[in-house]
Amino acid sequence: MKEKIYTLDSLRGICAIFVVLYHSAFVYSSSGKAQFIANSDVFVDFFFILSGFVMSMSYENRIIQGASFLNYSKKRFLRLYPLHIVTLFFWIFFILSKYVVYEKMGIGSTDPTINNNGLSLFLNLLFIHALKTTEYLSWNTPSWSISVEFAVYIIFFLYINVLSRYKKIRVFLAFFIVLLLYLYLITLFPESILRTYDYGLERCIAGFFLGYLTFKIYEYKNNNFNLLKLKPIIANVIDVFLLIVGYMLISNINGAYSQFCAIIFFSVVILYLSTFNSGVVSKILNMSFFRYVGMISFSVYMVHALILALASNFYQYILGVDIQLINGSLLYVTKIAPLINVFLIAIIIGISSLTYEHVENRDWSKVLESKRIYS
Predict the structure, then answer these.
(1) How far apart are the first and last CA of the chain?
(2) Phi-psi map region of 18: left, alpha, beta (phi>0 left; psi -120 to 50 alpha)
(3) What is the pLDDT of residues 318-359, one digit of tens each?
(4) Are 207 and 181 in contact (CB under 8 A)?
C-alpha cells in the first residue's frame, strides 16, 4: 500500500506542475498555449478526488470508532493554514509594493488593490475567502481551493459521524450527492463547471465524495479480490492506453460535459494506480524525483502564483516586453518560453522545498503546545 500511495503522490506532483504551466504567461506561439496546458485547470479536480480518496483511507474508520472532532479539525486546519498564512504574508508585501509603484510612479495599468483589498484580506485570514463571500479571487488566488477543501473536511467528518452505523447508506448517499452536484453544476454552467469563488464549494464536495466512492471501490476490491494481479506486459499496455486517453480527454475539453468526463477519468486513474503498480508509468512515478515533487506538491501549488507574478512583472516592466491578449489570456510570446518555464518551475520547486521543510512539514501542534506551556 505504501508504494501505491507514493505513486499517487507523484501523480499529484506532476498535476501541480501542469497547474503551474496553466498559470504561466509565457508561451512559445502567438496562437497561445497548447490545448493540454490550456485545459490543465481541471487538475484541481484531481486534487479534490485524491484528497477524498486519501482522507477516506486515513479517517473513515477513525471517525466511526469515535475520533475527536476537535482533534480532527485541528489537525486538518494546521495542515493547510500555516502555509496559507505564510504565502499570504508575501502576497501582502508584493501587492503593497505594486500599489506604491502604481501610485507614485504610474507604473501598472490597474490599481492592484481593487480585488486585493481590506475585505478580501480579512476573509483570507478567516480562511473563508472562497465560500461565496466575494465575487472575485484575491491575493494568492490558488488558495481558493484550500479554503473550500477545509470546509469539506468538516462536512466529511459530520457525514461519516452521523452515518457511522449505516455503511451502505453512506455509499449510496455519497453516489447521489456526487451525481446531483455534477448535474447541478453542468445545468448551471454548461460552458464550464470549473468554478472557484462562486460554486467552488459544490465543485469540491462533488470531487471529494467522488474520491470517497473511489476508495470504497478500492476497499471492496481489497476485501474480495486481494490477489488480483496484472502481468507486466498487460500493465504496460493499460498504462500507455490511459496516457493516450488522458491526453486526448484533456486536450479536447470543450465545455462542462467534457470536463466531467475528464473528472471521471481521474477517478479511474486513482483506482487503477492504487490497485496495480507493475506498469511502466507506475515505475516512472516511483522514481525518487517524482516522489519528491509529489511530497512538496502542496507547497508548489501554494507558492507558484507569486513566483509567476514576479516573473511576469519583471518581463513587462523591467525588460519592457509588451503583453498580448490571446484567447482571453494576457500572455508573453517568446521563442524562449519553454526555457523560461523550465527555469521558473526549477525556482518554484526550490522555494517549495524550503516552505515544505520550514512550514508545511512542521509539527505546528507541538509548536503551539510549547508556546502555551512557556507563556
Answers:
(1) 42
(2) alpha
(3) 887 778 878 777 888 888 899 999 999 999 999 999 999 999
(4) no
Distance from the Cα of residue 243 to its chain's centroid = 20
Cα 218 to Cα 5: distance, rounded to the nearest angstrom: 13
Question: The sheet that has 26-27: what strands, in order across it?
Answer: 26-27, 329-333, 324-326
For 169, other C-beta atoms within 10 Å of its C-beta total 10
Q: DSSP letters of 74-116?
A: HHHHHHHHHHHHHHHHHHHHHHHHHHHHHHHH--SSS-TTTTS
DSSP codes, 121-162: HHHHHHT-TTSSS-SS--SSGGGHHHHHHHHHHHHHHHHHHH
pTM comes to 0.91
Distance CA 304, CA 300 (A): 6
Round to whole Å and give the CA distance between 56 and 216: 8
Q: pLDDT tens digits for 237-249?
A: 999 999 999 999 9
Q: Which of 74, 63, 87 is nearest to 369 (CA)?
A: 74
To the nearest 10 degrees (0 to 180), the angle between helices 43-64 and 256-275 is 50
pLDDT in tens, 258-288: 999 999 999 999 999 988 878 888 889 989 9
Q: What are phi and psi of 187, to 5 degrees?
A: -65, -45
Q: How confident is the model at residue 3 (pLDDT cuts 50, 70, 90)?
A: very low
